[in-house]
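Researcher: Good morning. I'm working through a list of sequences from a screen, and I'd like to move beyond sequence-only analysis. For each chain I'm collecting a predicted structure so we can compare shapes side by side. This is the next one on the list. No need for commentary yet; just the structure.
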Amino acid sequence: MNWVKTGSDHPLGYVLGRCGWILPKGDVIEPDNCFIRAERMRDYMRQNGLTKLPESYPELVPDLVMECCCCTEAETDPSLYQKAKLQMLKEMGMPVGIFMEPETERTVTVYQQGQPEMVLRDGDILTIPDLLPGWELPIAELWET
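Model: Good morning. Structure tokens for this chain:
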């Protein structure tokens, strides 16, 4: 688990990879990566009487989920499941979902509350000002090794 901090050293939240989350209806998901705002995690800990970060799956919808499709075979297209998962999380109140297709499309699809899907390609810049103020990522940098 890693902190995302502002220049003033105030934590914005946590970045987690392969961490499970228990959703309001009891479903469990394990996204590739996710982000939760610090104040939401603090509220969750306070409400559940925790003095340190939970060791088990938190019962929260993450603020941002990122899924990466790494399959090039059309017969086994996990992107359908991943996109459906992002849509379900959006319906449960997740502010931002990101779906990356590095192998076939080299695109990033962004799902945001109250906005239509946005497909980004090389030359575009991903920003999420409401969640990560000042942060930006040129899409082309995602494909560099």
